[in-house]
Design goal:
alpha/beta, Ferritin, Rossmann fold, two-stranded antiparallel ribbon, about 10% strand, globular
Length: about 525
């Protein structure tokens, strides 16, 4: 039933979008869902208090109180903040907005409500996106959107309402990512990839960190995993960073809507040059950094303490991300990172040397090759790296898993891992690690194999799983056309420069022999 509701809501919301760009419209819709959530949780707490203040057996009972006294008591913010419910001023409550939905100034009213909510709740400072008054929607469409969001909630139970709103928010994030295509992938990692990372890392408790957190999907999935395995909300501490200000806000709302406490830094910022958590050493790191970014370097990063295995090339941040995450791990910590396939085999500009140093230091634990078409934003084949600071089992070995043929197509252009496939991959890793009740590990031709470091060295420290597991040959289309063209152009430039040097040398030699040109 909820799936049908989500689809109906999306179809209606998308129709209201008219000609507005999905990237802009996303913030209007998700911002309204967030305001509806905090207003609903406030209203539910208020109703609970009203009942308790009027019940003689309750510790909150307000004896001989007049209706006016009760109304005033219900406006005491301490009742709300004590149970982590955001305080919502009367004019900012959803019913006030809904009753004004047909007014021509509804955009201005929503912006004013957001400003008030931020002022009253310091934790939300700078998070709410006040863009409604200037929204380029046709007349009446914003009011219709307010009416549509008014239908979300379903019941007086705060935990049910929170879960429903959270699921709707997450569903809309995915649909907006699909609608935005390439740009959408910058803030959203498809759920099946996140589930795979979480299932292999098993973050039961401790500090969880994502240095490029997008809209916060890694954190949400970690909390779901913990709850599914008998833990409770709050067993992990959430730390994140995001450079894009609007995406940073999406992440904060996504976490707040689920009641998850978080620290996303004081502000949005570049992870390499404005590290918001310099002293953090996390138990678990989950991340999907942007692939192959070339404009990341800054002169201040030269000789940075994070580059333990070598200075990353200035034209590609892949090995900067890997080393940044190792730096932020506890001694017993574990990291899972999504990267482009090229990271497993590239020997460009010191990448091969850094990879070799990491392998020989035994910090690479598991490598997983992924199928194509998993992402909204790129067709570049990707892989999962799992890193550890110190291995406690399987020292001197790396587990390779080739999952390139494990995906199921869910649309003409999109594939995903089913829960059964995720379970198989995670179960294989758990058995290989020797975890309790995981069963015995065994190599499976074409799927998984445990490999000694000496054999990896014989292969030039290339970490492509297909090379080791005996899978049938699949073309390693490691980089997209632009990346390959750039590399070929650079190589051609180097060869032409060498050719010019040789030409000059030959001319000098022949000139010395009396030949003229």
């Amino acid at each position: 039933m909820l799936d049908d509701i989500k689809k109906t809501l999306w179809a209606t919301a998308d129709k209201l979008r008219a000609n507005m760009d999905a990237a802009e419209y996303k913030h209007l819709v998700l911002g309204l869902i967030f305001v509806k959530y905090i207003s609903d949780t406030f209203a539910a707490r208020r109703a609970e208090l009203s009942h308790r203040l009027s019940t003689p057996q309750d510790e909150y009972y307000f004896a001989d109180a007049s209706p006016q006294d009760l109304a005033a008591e219900l406006e005491d913010r301490d009742y709300y903040t004590a149970v982590n419910v955001f305080w919502v001023p009367e004019v900012a409550r959803w019913e006030s907005l809904r009753s004004a939905a047909k007014q021509s100034d509804i955009g201005k009213r929503v912006d004013e409500a957001l400003t008030l909510i931020e002022t009253e709740n310091p934790k939300l400072k700078g998070i709410l996106d006040k863009r409604y008054a200037r929204a380029q929607l046709p007349d009446g469409k914003l009011g219709e959107l307010v009416d549509l969001v008014s239908t979300i909630g379903f019941g007086d139970n705060p935990s049910v309402a929170r879960d429903v709103l959270g699921q709707v928010y997450e569903y809309f994030l995915g649909m907006f990512a699909s609608a935005e295509g390439k740009r959408g992938g910058q803030f959203y990692t498809p759920a099946s990839i996140v589930k795979t990372l979480v299932a292999i890392l098993s973050p039961h408790s401790g500090q969880v960190y994502d240095p490029c957190c997008g809209s916060g999907g890694m954190f949400v999935q970690s909390e779901k995993f913990i709850e599914a395995h008998g833990g409770k909300l709050g067993d992990v501490s959430i730390y994140g960073q995001e450079a894009n200000p609007t995406t940073w806000r999406l992440a904060a709302m996504n976490l707040a809507i689920r009641g998850i406490d978080f620290n996303l830094g004081r502000e949005p910022g570049d992870t390499f040059t404005r590290n918001q958590h310099p002293d953090l050493r996390a138990d678990f790191i989950l991340a999907n950094p942007p692939f192959n970014i070339s404009d990341w370097w800054h002169g201040s990063l030269m000789g940075d303490a994070r580059w333990v295995y070598g200075d990353p090339p200035q034209g590609n941040a892949n090995y900067a991300w890997l080393q940044h995450m190792l730096h932020h791990l506890k001694a017993t910590g574990r990291a899972g990172i999504v990267l482009a396939n090229g990271s497993m085999s590239s020997s460009q500009n010191s990448e091969g040397q850094i990879r070799a140093a990491m392998v020989e230091a035994d910090v690479v634990e598991v490598m997983v090759a992924l199928p194509g078409q998993l992402f909204f934003n790129t067709q570049i084949p990707a892989c999962l790296w799992f890193l550890v600071k110190q291995k406690t089992q399987r020292k001197g070995e790396v587990l390779f898993i080739d999952a390139r043929k494990q995906a199921t197509m869910i649309s003409r252009v999109q594939s995903e891992f089913t829960d059964e496939v995720i379970e198989r991959i995670a179960g294989t890793v758990a058995a290989w690690r020797g975890e309790a009740n995981a069963g015995e590990y065994a190599d499976v031709a074409g799927f998984c194999r445990s490999v000694q470091l000496a054999e990896i060295a014989q292969h030039g420290h290339v970490l492509t799983p297909g090379r080791y597991v005996g899978a049938e040959a699949v073309e390693d289309n490691d980089e997209d056309f632009t990346t390959k063209m750039q590399q070929l152009t650079e190589k051609l430039g180097e060869q032409m420069a060498k050719g010019a040097e040789l030409d000059q040398l030959i001319r000098l030699k022949l000139g010395g022999l009396g030949y003229e040109f």
